[in-house]
Specification:
single chain; 178 residues; alpha/beta; Trna Endonuclease, Chain: A, domain 1; 6-stranded mixed sheet; 5 helices
Length: 178
């Protein structure tokens, strides 16, 4: 059976058609660069030649990270579930200063996407069942382009519902798209 990625499955539910292709490509590259630089900072304590267009996002991340994170448990780790046949590469699992274990996904869009809840619930399932780490909560961390305070939105209270939504999307994807 084919293994699908979380983003491949949920990507069908995001409408990018109103964004010109060149702007979308630039935003995707900026997001990739921001993720890479955030990983450097989280693991090494510094950024390495960050692109100018990422500087505000990186300041936003650094301020949140320095104020909240005790330990980086996982970074950019891929897991695969052979029970449901899906895979995903999560951004971070942190131990916070509060001793909570928090699965965190870095986001650079200005608006929250309804797919983020299902995405994070799927990653949480992978981390717990394949990585054997129990997270206390899941969170999207939306970084600000102007360097302002990052906005963390937690979804832990609905993890089971959101994972069920993901499994429904996975089943539809498998049966309708193949």
């Amino acid at each position: 059976m084919k293994i699908y990625s979380v983003t491949e499955v949920l990507g069908k539910y995001v409408d990018w058609s109103k964004i010109p292709a060149a702007i979308l490509a630039w935003a995707c590259q900026r997001g990739t660069d921001t993720h890479t630089q955030c990983g450097l900072y989280a693991n090494l304590g510094y950024f390495l030649n960050p692109p100018t267009e990422c500087l505000g996002y990186l300041k936003s991340f650094r301020c949140w990270f320095d104020a909240n994170v005790k330990t980086v448990i996982l970074y950019e780790k891929r897991f695969t579930c052979k029970k449901f046949w899906f895979t995903g590469r999560l951004d971070f699992v942190f131990e916070l200063n509060t001793d909570e274990i928090l699965l965190t996904d870095i986001k650079t869009p200005l608006a929250e996407s309804p797919t983020w809840k299902a995405q994070l619930a799927a990653y949480d399932y992978l981390v717990e069942n394949e990585g054997h780490i129990k997270c206390d909560d899941i969170m999207s961390l939306r970084l600000k382009p102007d360097g302002g305070a990052a906005r963390g939105v937690r979804y832990g209270n609905g993890k089971l519902e959101y994972f069920s939504t993901f499994l429904s999307a996975l089943t539809a994807h498998r049966n309708l798209i193949g």
